[in-house]
Amino acid sequence: MNIQWRDVRDPSAELHLHETMTFPNIVKEIGHVVAMSPVEVDLCASMHDDSCYVRGTLSADVTYRCSRCLQEFVERLDVPFCERFVKAAQEVVDDEDERIAVVGEEIDLEPWMEQAIILALPYRPLCEQECAGLCPVCGMNRNESSCNCNDERIDPRLADLAKFFEQN
């Protein structure tokens, strides 16, 4: 999705963008994302003080793999998008400037939208906050049934002391 600088040149006008896009790299690169529906992009671009402001939302249904029980689940992801672009003669990287310098006659929004989506994804997705996860001994899903495995872990430095108490 690109915006031409000439389309937002008039400060009194706004450019509305509504499109459906796919971001296949997100599914490839983020391990706990199993699938992602096409992203509904609803943005508004306007010009203020030599900068192009692009605001709106990015929405999609994301299928995650739970980080505790490995079951797949679907959640709606609504990401607010707000970026400020400025036209530049050459690409300048200034970490303190919040504006994004753009060389040329058009603004390519796709990498910035992909970045916003990746930053909005949960680090460790959970199917439920109370997800019990998998048994570390037998691998049974503790949400579906319980097992009698002893998953008590003893510090290896104290293992001989535990054996001593078992014998006495």
Automatic annotation (TrEMBL):
One Pfam family hit: YceD
Superkingdom of the organism of origin: Bacteria
Classification via PANTHER family: LARGE RIBOSOMAL RNA SUBUNIT ACCUMULATION PROTEIN YCED HOMOLOG 1, CHLOROPLASTIC
Name of this protein: DUF177 domain-containing protein
Native species: Collibacillus ludicampi
